[in-house]
Amino acid sequence: MVASEPLEAARARAAEFLLRRHRLRAAEALPWLAAVLAYFFFPGHLAFGTQLLIMVLFTLSLDLILGYAGVVSLGHAAFFGTGAYTAGMLAARYGWGEPITGLLAAGAAAALVGCVSGWFLLRYRGLTLLMLTLATAIMLQELGNARADITGGFEGLTGITIEPLLGRFEYDLYGHTTYLYALAVLFLLFLLVRRIVYSPFGQALTGIRENVRRMHALGSPVHRRLVVAYTIGAAIAGIAGGLFAQANAFVTLGVFGFDRSAAVLVMLILGGAGRLYGAFVGAAAYMLLEDSLAKLSPEFWQFGIGLLLVLTVLFARRGLLGLLEDLGRLLSRRASA
Q: Which pTM value belongs to this model?
């Protein structure tokens, strides 16, 4: 009985630690407040804002499997593309334009692809895993091209007609409905991911990321937990793809492309992997910089993105969000001194 007391005390301290971390902090309201204010102050840029919210959601899905579980992927666009084509084909080929159920179908299809591929791929590590994830996205892209009668091939999937959201809110040209729709979906899925990463399951994923051999020695079902995390991340990426198809009413095979997988990886590195709000900071920095630089130099805008990435990797190892946190603590210490 005496021997079990230290163990019980350790469990109690761990539970208290998780509960303390899980509590919402006032600063966490800032990105959501900024998103709501953007709706009112930038009504002419809501279409761009919708794409930004979609990429934040896509980056968040990668953060779950890379930032927390430590699974590096170069083919995360496989799930984004699966979700985009699922939602798009349901509306264009089968007349199912109801947005919410179409989004759920997109997430379910991507989760299925993630579960099946993850069961085999996650037995490998390092360069082998990188190449296998990339190959998965390429094979899905070529499958879409081979079935051009259904997907439209490289000409793209057209004729996507989405019904009014909740039967009342029409999709307008300026993007009012799609922006609020994307924001609501992002908020709900963010709460889900936040609950996961602060749960015992999330802590187990962090342990796997830090020392997989030790987790094996502790008897943790490492492979099963990685597959579950990979499947959840795939489902969220699929929902982001479904939102993309519904917002643009057009899908091409580029949604499976390496450029999209690389871009979301860069966004996560810029914002800070393994940090919930890193997806917000990284996606916003990447897309705002891309938009600004493309106007200045349509041919060489990637130079600016590359320079920012190099500076972040060299001088801000925890990403831009970590840099902002360090700056905030420094100013706070100076103010209190």
A: 0.89
